[in-house]
Amino acid sequence: MFEIEQYKKLVTEWLRLDQNPETRAQITALADKVEDNLPELKERLGSRIEFGTAGLRARMEAGFSRMNDLTVIQASQGLAKYLLENVQDAKNKGVVVGHDHRHHSQTFAKLTAAVFISLGFKVWFFRQLVHTPLVPYTVKKLGGAAGIMITASHNPKDDNGYKVYWENACQIIPPHDSGIAAMIEKNLEPWIWDEKLAIESPLSQDPAKEGVIENYFEELKGLSAFRFDNEASDLKFVYTAMHGVGTPYAKRSFEAFGLKPFIPVSRQVEPDPDFPTVAFPNPEEGKGALALAIECAEQNNARIIIANDPDADRLAIAEKQASGEWIVFTGNQIGTILGSATLERLKMAGEPTDKVAMLASTVSSKFLAKLAVANGFLFEETLTGFKWIGNRAQELENQGYNAVFAFEEAIGFTVGKVVRDKDGVSALGFFAEWAVQLYNRGQTAYDYLQSLYRQYGFFVTNNSYFICRNPQTIREIFFRIRYGGNAVKSSDGKYPYKLQYPENIGKYRVVGIRDLTVGYDSDTKDNTPTLPVSSSSEMITFKLDNGCVFTIRTSGTEPKIKYYCELAGSSAEEAANDLKVVVDAIGNELMEAQKNNLEFRKEA
C-alpha cells in the first residue's frame, strides 16, 4: 500500500510539471489503474533519466526516466546553468542546436533552444535537418560555448537522444558529465516552455546562413588528393542513408571529392522516422541491414556499397568480389584501410611521420599500433567512445602532433581534422577516392586489405557478448576474475583484496593485465594505468603469450558482458583457430557461462 501511495505522489508531481497533453495523458491513463500498472509506473517514474558522457538517450514517452519535453527542458536548464559557471562569456559565444528527423526531434530541439534564449544566450539553431558532425563543426567554426544534437543515432525508432559537445567541439568527458547532471537536479522546475522562441527570438540565428555548411564542404575538399582521377573514374558506388539524414550531405561529399554521383537506394535515401525497411537502422548489423543496398548494387552492376547510419556519423562499406560474394567490412577492417591510406598519402606528399598521430579505442584493432612501429608515427589508445578519442586527439594537436586519423571498431572514423568526432560523411568521400586509386592499380579494397595483412600480420577479431540480467552475478564474476576463488585482504591497502588474476587463459599464459576498474596495469612502472580509471564499470584487458589481446567489459546501458578479442598471425586461418581457443576459455573459464546461466550472443 505504501508503494502505491508513493507512486501516486510521483504521478501528481509529473502532472504538475508536464505541459504536454500527449505525455500527460499517458501518465493519467496509467494512474487510472495504478495497482495494475504499478510496474510500468515504477519504470517510468521511479528513476530519473541519467545524464552521462553520452548525454541522454532513451525511449520517447512520458516519465522521468524517458525522453520527452519535460526531461529535455530539465536537461537544458541544467546545462545552461553549468555553462554560465564554467565557460567564460558563454552567452555571447552561444550554443549550437541541431536535430535529426526522428519523431519529436524538432520539438526537443526548439524547447532546448528556448531554454537558452530565456537566459539570454545566443543560439545557433539549425532550421534544417543536419547530420550529427555538423554540430561540433559549427561549435568549432563559430566559437560556440557548447553544442547539442537531438538524435538517437542508429537506435530503434522509438528512441531519441540529447548529445552534448563542449566548447572545444568534442563530446563532453568527466568531470563535465557529473557537473551537468548535478546542475540538472537543481533546476527541475521548468522556467520556460515555448517552442516559438527558437524561431522568433532575435537571439536565434540559423548557422547555415553564416556559411558553415559551405565551409564544412570546403574543408572536405582539402581531404581530396586525386580529384582528376576521381572525375575520370567509372567506378560505381551504391549509397544508403538508412532512412536517415545523410543523403544530401553524402551527395555533397562526393561533389567535394570530384566523384561521379553515386546510385541511391531509392527506398532508404529519404528521411523517415519509422525506418520502414529495417528493424534496426544500423548498417553495422551486416548483410541483413544492407539487403536492399546489395539488391540495388546487383541491379546496377556496382561493386561498392557505402552506408551511413541515420545521423550519418558512422560509415559501413561492402564490396562485391570476383566470385560474386559480397564482403561487408568490419569497423576494424575499414579502420585498417583508412589508416593505411592516410599514411600512404602522407608519404606521397613527402611529409615526415615523426609528428603524425593516429588513435583508436582500446577495444579496437591493434593494426595501427603495428603500422606505427614500422613507420615511425605515434599511435595511442583511448577508452571506448569518440568522446575520449576526440579529446585526446585535440590534446595531441596542442602538443604539436598532426592527429590525422582515428577510429573505433563500431564503424566510427575521423579522417583529417575537419571534426573531432566520428563523421561518416567525410569518411565516405575519403574512402571512395581511395577505392578509385585502388581500382586504378588493379586492386579491390579487399585485395588492399589482404596485402596489408600479408605485410604486417593477419589481424583476426572475435567480438561478442553474454547476456546477464542479474547485477549480483556480474559482480561475482569480476570479483572472482580479479581476486581469485579465495579472496584475501590486500596487505598494502591499495586494493580491497590481493589481486590474483588468472595466470593462464586456455592453454596460453597471461603476460599482461590492465584493469581500469581498480586501477592496475602490469605494464607500467608503478602499475598505474595511463588511461582513465572508473570504478563504476567493469573493464579488464588481458595480453597472452600467443599475442592475443582481449578486453572484457560491462555495458553501461544493457545487461551485457562484452568481449573484444584480436590476434595477429601468419595466416587468417591460423589466427582464427588460435583465437577460438581463447574465446572458448573466456566463456568456460572466466565467465563460467553455463554455471552462471549466461546467454551467449554472436554479434553480426
Automatic annotation (TrEMBL):
Give the InterPro entries listed for this entry.
Answer: A-D-PHexomutase_a/b/a-I, A-D-PHexomutase_a/b/a-I/II/III, A-D-PHexomutase_a/b/a-II, A-D-PHexomutase_a/b/a-III, A-D-PHexomutase_C_sf, A-D-PHexomutase_CS, Alpha-D-phosphohexomutase_SF
UniProt keyword annotation of Isomerase present: yes
Is Lipoprotein set as a keyword in this record? no
Family, per the entry?
Answer: Belongs to the phosphohexose mutase family.
| Localization | Cytoplasm
Any Pfam family matching the protein: PGM_PMM_II
Source species, domain of life: Eukaryota
This one is known as Phosphoglucomutase
Cite the CDD domains for this sequence. PGM2 (cd05799)
Name the Gene Ontology molecular function terms of this record: magnesium ion binding; phosphopentomutase activity
Q: Cite the entry's keywords alphabetically.
A: Carbohydrate metabolism, Cytoplasm, Glucose metabolism, Isomerase, Magnesium, Metal-binding, Phosphoprotein
Q: Which organism is it from?
A: Mortierella isabellina
